[in-house]
TrEMBL record:
The chain crosses the membrane at residues 20-41, 47-69, 105-131, 137-160. It comes from the Bacteria. This is Small multi-drug export protein. It holds the Pfam family Sm_multidrug_ex. Keywords: Membrane, Transmembrane, Transmembrane helix. The keyword Transmembrane helix applies.
Length: 164
């Protein structure tokens, strides 16, 4: 992931502000907050400022995903992207099995663990396909994203080494 973040940061260039770069990186589906925090570390952005910007970037698309992803997937089924829709639904179905048992708390844990394949975008997709209530899904995703952000800050800014 480090190399992807580095390429995106270089691609956005030096003409953009560091804050804008980490905001954009945080909005990207695969990178999300984890990538934004890594980019902030590369760009020497203050940890608290980076966490706030990355949270905003990651959470901005989430309400739209929760509200409109079903309609978008239905529309995509009638296009040449039908295979992509099936892949997304299969992936979400596989991951939703671990979440379904615990619902809101399960979604929180899923989003909070900063590993590849987890995060706010995937969590929102799963919540929407499970038919989870918007309010519960948003609460879980916000809390999970904040937790993942704190974990990533401890890792990326070397705080674990200072604690131990």
């Amino acid at each position: 992931m480090d190399q992807i973040v580095k390429n995106v940061v270089e691609g956005l260039g030096t003409s953009s502000s560091s804050e804008l770069i980490i905001f954009v990186v945080s909005m990207l589906p695969v990178l999300e907050l984890r990538g934004g925090i890594l980019a902030a570390g590369m760009l020497n952005v203050d940890m608290v400022r980076a966490l706030i910007i990355c949270m905003a970037g990651t959470l901005l698309p989430i309400p739209f995903i929760l509200l409109f992803i079903r309609q978008i997937l239905d529309w995509m089924r009638n296009t040449r992207f039908v295979k992509l829709v099936h892949r997304l639904e299969e992936k979400a179905e596989q991951k939703s099995q671990s979440i379904e048992k615990y619902k809101t708390f399960g979604l929180f844990v899923f989003v909070a663990i900063p590993l590849p394949g987890t995060g706010a975008w995937t969590g929102a997709l799963i919540a929407a396909l499970m038919g989870m209530r918007f309010r519960h899904a948003m609460f879980s995703i916000i809390a999970g994203t904040l937790t993942a952000g704190i974990i990533m800050c401890f890792i990326s800014y070397g705080m674990l080494g200072r604690i131990w």
